[in-house]
Amino acid sequence: xxxxxxxxxxxxxxxxxxxxxxxxxxxxxxxxxxxxxxxxxxxxxxxxxxxxxxxxxxxxxxxxxxxxxxxxxxxxxxxxxxxxxxxxxxxxxxxxxxxxxxxxxxxxxxxxxxxxxxxxxxxxxxxxxxxxxxxxxxxxxxxxxxxxxxxxxxxxxxxxxxxxxxxxxxxxxxxxxxxxxxxxxxxxxxxxxxxxxxxxxxxxxxxxxxxxxxxxxxxxxxxxxxxxxxxxxxxxxxxxxxxxxxxxxxxxxxxxxxxxxxxxxxxxxxxxxxxxxxxxxxxxxxxxxxxxxxxxxxxxxxxxxxxxxxxxxxxxxxxxxxxxxxxxxxxxxxxxxxxxxxxxxxxxxxxx
Length: 352
Ligand code: UD1
Hints:
single chain; six-stranded parallel sheet
């Protein structure tokens, strides 16, 4: 069994960290391809180093561009790799442009595609990640779902074959890495346990509309009168803040570069709560026992909202929602499986 795994953006590199170890253990041969969608040290290399992932066998170095350019470039370069390697299975992760481009090329070459994190659905339907997810699910033969809701979402779209509920591989990684979480940033920023909020924002609907981004930053400034606000800024967001002339709104905020996984988890673990539009961070906050204000009209990780743990928010409601979130509620249990998703996934692959 030869599997070709694809990474490109930060959240995929994190998922690869769990799976590559599991594949090695089970004797599954893996070829690793990086698209180069994320190329900054802080967005890519640092995760390979800290999570001890081996160097990719191929790097397509596509970099940034419009959605069409990026998807097209990955497709052209990836097809060459596929024709050379001829794997038995192509494994794609998540919802990025890298995921979509590779799923399409593989499906057209009639090489089976397995989608890790299949079945997640969220509004607005026109957000790039949602388009990527839906199309990828519909051209995949094997669909590994992180939640029961994801299985149900696929069923509603008529996809019932090759669907497996595995739980979330990011939980496997979280449990494995927990003893290694780092507190360097927590210390160098001079933070106090429970005395600060961690915020990340990078979705296009939040960053690319000037009024929306301004409102988010104004709300953070308001909150910074009560707590320290730590804001690791994604490159897309940094670019927009400069373009829209909003930098002065950050004066009271602890702005830092995107943090590596171990330090980011360390920061969340000691925080009061989290404000985010990242899919991964909504769950990681929960695994750390922290609640999150999710700055989105909807979330693919709806279970945590329905359990009353996380809360959705429009930009102008953030301060108000922070009153609500700053209370104790009981932690819902094992919402995304038991931390053995990679084991279940490898078992399925071995039986193909
Ligand atoms: C991508 C994924 C998103 C995922 C996120 C995690 C898509 C459509 N979205 O969003 O699902 O949650 O990654 O971070 O694939 N940039 C840099 N350096 C980098 C990477 C990006 O400067 O290393 C800048 C570029 O200007 C680029 C912009 O950020 O144009 C956006 O990057 P892109 O990869 O398009 O999407 P993300 O917002 O990172």
